[in-house]
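sorry for the late reply, my laptop died twice this morning and i had to redo everyting from scratch. anyway the thing you sent over, i finally got around to it. pasting the sequence first so we're on the same page, its 266 residues, then the predicted structure underneath. double check i copied it right bc i was rushing
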Amino acid sequence: MINIQNYVQAESLEEAYQLNQKRSGRIIGGMLWMKMARNTIGTAIDLCRLGLDAIEETEEEFSIGAMATLRQLETHPGLNAYTCGAAARAVQDIIGVQFRNMATVGGSIWGRFGFSDVLTLFLAMDTYVELYKGGIIPLETFASMKQDNDILVRILVKKKPGIFVYQAMRMQRTDFPILTCALSQVEGAYRAVIGARPARAMVIRDKQGLLKGGITEDSARAFAAYAAESAPTDSNVRGSAAYRTHLINVLARRSALELGGMNTWN
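ok and here's the structure:
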């Protein structure tokens, strides 16, 4: 069980940042994974008073506060319309509604967990993160960085014309995924995101133009094979590396065929 010695509701991002520079300080979100650890936190820093718990939509982008919950992602009409339902599909099997009512988007992205459906989803879009000190950077860049003592403020999704599909394989509903796959076409460019490899999700772009001429059974199969060759996999208790590579072939092909039947959002 985790032991918290001091709890602070920060009154500003600057206060939260200064407290987080100490080795004993930790930013807390929904506390759903953190509470399972067996260690001591000197100062738990809560961002609940900073107004970061909303999803705001403009004509150009979605701004998702770090303290917004996975349930808000799942039920937001604008975000689900833009993502063709992929936002809800990506999180609907994460434990249960009660869990998703507490788990935060910021915690999911900041953790950069290998099993993260949320990271896989957002990497398929034109997504950026806003860091308190580090500024706005692409999510793909952020996902490859090591954790530091900065603060994730919000996630920004640019509303570029696109279509999105999300697929995942689990042993059973509510379990961790064995493999995740998001496929998108944004402004005519295709990208696949493969997660739960079991390493962090990675982006695979259609550099060979396999889908450029249109999505057919043959082009979907060729792109799926290319994705499987491009995404390294490994083994853990949920599946072997060979099984995950097979799943990339299956899920990427299914995703491509599903994507081929959609109309571009604009």
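The two ends are 48 Å apart (CA to CA).
thats about all i looked at so far, will dig more tmrw
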